[in-house]
Structure formats: C-alpha cells, structure tokens
Write a structure and sequence with these properties.
By secondary structure, the chain is α+β, with helices and mostly antiparallel strands. The protein is 54% helix and 10% strand.
Length: 260
C-alpha cells in the first residue's frame, strides 16, 4: 500500500496528498457515526465525536453555543475548557484540520456531512424543485437511518425529531412531484419509504394512495386505505380523516378528487 505524504498547497494553504488532490472527508451521522478520508475509515476518539457530530448537524455555531450545548451541566468556564480540549484532540485526529476556527466554529472546507446533504435535498424539494430524470442520490439521502442512533443527548433528540419531520415532508413532496410527472413506479417507492418511516402518518399514506389512483390501480388504493384504517384503529383507537376516505371513493368512481 502506498503511503501518500501530506503537503500543503502554497497558493491556498490547503493540505493535499502527493497526488496534488486535496483529501476529502465524509462525516456520516445518519445511521451511526463515521468519518472517512477519501473513502477510508478514520478513527475518532469518543469524546471528540460529540463536537464533530454537533458541527456536522449545526454546520456553524458560536463557541459559547457549542460549549453550552455539549456540556450543559458544567460551569461556563469548565464548558469552554472542555471545548478547547476537544478541539485540540480533533486537530490530532487527521493531518488536516477538520474544524475551522474563527469567530465561529464550522466544519473545515473539504469536510462534508450527510446531514447537510439531506437538508439540501429536502430544501430543494420543498421549494418546488423537480427531481432529476432518475430519482438518483436524493432518495438514499432522504431514506437513510435516523440521526446518531444510541445517542441520547438532549440536542441529539431534538435534532433527530427535526430531521425525521424534514425527511417525511420531503419524501411526500417528492412522491407528489413524481406522480404529477407520471413516474409512478418511482413515486410508489418514495411514498412507501415515507410510510415505512411513519406507518401512522396520514399524509404519507395519502401520498401512496394518490399514486395508485393516478395509475388507476384502484384495488391497491383501497387495500392501502383499509390497512391504514385497521392500523390506526388498533394502535390509536381513531379513524382516518373523512377527506382520505373521500379521496379513495372519488378515485374509485372516477369523480373529481376533493382538495384537502
């Protein structure tokens, strides 16, 4: 195995290997913590993971915010000291800095985060952007596992729920967009992903039913509605909204589908 010597581009100050290409780091937070350098895993000390993960989610924050969030039970000076220690440890993890320090903290250039990728994909979809010819990488980014499973810090729990909601809204928007474009097979897969993430969410089931109705698969639409009604009654003791039932009936008879 060749060992590449790390040098620095004198024009930009950016570290690079002897191939002349700056190394790329990928921070994985969805489905579990991981850091890769040009596709190879990089070990990160347990304590330093918390700071790197926080920046991977927040992207950019004040030092006081990071210290107060990551060490909420500590005195302010102790929290700041802990932050300085974590930054020092992170600087020792890789030949290149992973964190940029100026007036605020942020991931260094060349470090990408899957949470940022998910956020960008969701924002584009919710803003009305159209998917590419093939659904492509957007769906895996939206469908991958939850944020940092097994972590129970308060900020992780808050961000986990925020990302879950963002992901669901984006998947539903994508399913609707694909249905409008007549890309029914892709729309079904996307809607099924949303239903799998939250089986009792009516808007996810509605997106799936809408695809089936659009392609005139009435039996599939009715079957999905009945399954949802049974699950909702068993788990929560409630019924679907009248509008969802009207949607299925209208689609089955060829009538105009009512607006929500």
């Amino acid at each position: 195995m060749a060992v590449h010597e790390v040098t620095r581009d004198h024009r930009t100050g950016t570290p690079e290997t002897d191939t002349g290409v700056p190394p790329r780091y990928a921070l994985r937070l969805l489905g579990g913590f991981g850091l890769e350098r040009d596709g190879r895993a990089v070990p990160v000390p347990q304590g330093a993971r918390r700071l790197l993960a926080y920046l991977g989610v927040r992207q950019r924050c004040a030092r006081s915010e990071a210290a107060g969030t990551l060490w909420p039970g500590s005195h302010e000076e102790r929290a700041r000291a802990n932050l300085r220690t974590m930054l020092w440890r992170l600087h020792r993890v890789t030949p290149e800095p992973l964190v940029r320090e100026d007036d605020r903290l942020a991931l260094a250039p060349g470090v990408t985060s899957d949470v940022a990728a998910l956020g960008a994909a969701a924002t584009a979809l919710l803003a009305g952007g159209s998917p590419a010819v093939g659904v492509g990488p957007g769906v895996p980014a939206l469908a991958i596992g939850e944020l940092l499973p097994g972590w129970y810090d308060d900020w992780v729990l808050t961000e986990r729920e925020r990302l879950r909601q963002t992901r669901l809204y984006a998947l539903e928007a994508l399913a609707e967009r694909l249905t409008t474009q007549g890309r029914y097979s892709e729309a079904v897969q996307v809607a099924l992903t949303a239903v799998h993430l939250e089986p009792l969410r009516e808007s996810a089931t509605r997106a799936l039913i809408a695809v089936h109705l659009a392609e005139r698969n009435i039996n599939e639409a009715v079957r999905r509605f009945e399954l949802f009604r049974a699950d909702l009654g068993r788990e929560l003791g409630v019924a679907p909204t009248p509008w969802l039932e009207q949607l299925v009936r209208a689609g089955a008879t060829g009538a105009t589908v009512p607006s929500p």
